[in-house]
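Take a specimen:
=====
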Amino acid sequence: MRRSLAAFALCALIAPTSVSAQTPTPASASLQAAVDGPWRPADETARDRYRHPAQTLAFFGIKPSDTVVEITPGSGWYSAILAPYLKDAGHYVAAVVDPAAVAEGSRAYQQKSRDSLQARFDAAPAQFSGARIVAYAPATPVFGPAGSADVVLTFRNVHNWRMSDNAEAMFKAFFAVLKPGGTLGVVEHRAKADVADDDKSGYVGQQQVIALATGAGFKLAGQSEVNANPRDTKDYPGGVWTLPPTNRHAQAEDAKFQAIGESDRMTLKFVKP
């Protein structure tokens, strides 16, 4: 059942929001080497200036020996950094939607997404031989044995789960798969304030994300402005997809939106007690 706006407001009042923004953490040499890996294609490294992978992953405190579960990694943008980084001493797990667990009209898309990611892994064993894929049902998500992961990561997904009315189930499943003391790292398009349950802008209120996490049992451990973008006015008729990299705007306005860049994003670190 989706929470009402009043419930979200109440959660925001009790959420531990006193954690101040933290200074960016320097990346280790091994993490920086994974970010700088020559196997990363140019169209992906071009987005580093917006996504700040080295600083973001350093902020989340990921170690080479960790078991890391990334939720719906898409085409594998972060996979190409995390899988090589974890290959020797840790484990990288890509959690994708199980095509058999969704409505028939969505199965082809989910199957194509899974097949494309697997093909990328298979094509570059030097980087991805240790990576594996686990499929989950969105309504009843399970990402692995309880208490088996050191870190769960999600990048720009919470708005989709809210629109699908399964955000609470996802956060509870994150909590279940993590070890005590494990980390949940969340990056999400940041709205100016709380948004309605049926909002389709792609932005989410930061307090709403904190409420989802703390409601599942997590403690807010830190927040960073490394992925902030003050040029993002967040008032586009087409929502966040107006901006790069989707660029759903008129060609005549391209220079305007390229100057803005990618969205303003919250970067939140939670810990399972």
Observations:
- DSSP finds twelve helices and eight strands in the chain.
- The first helix runs from residue 5 to 14.
- The first strand starts at residue 21 and ends at 22.
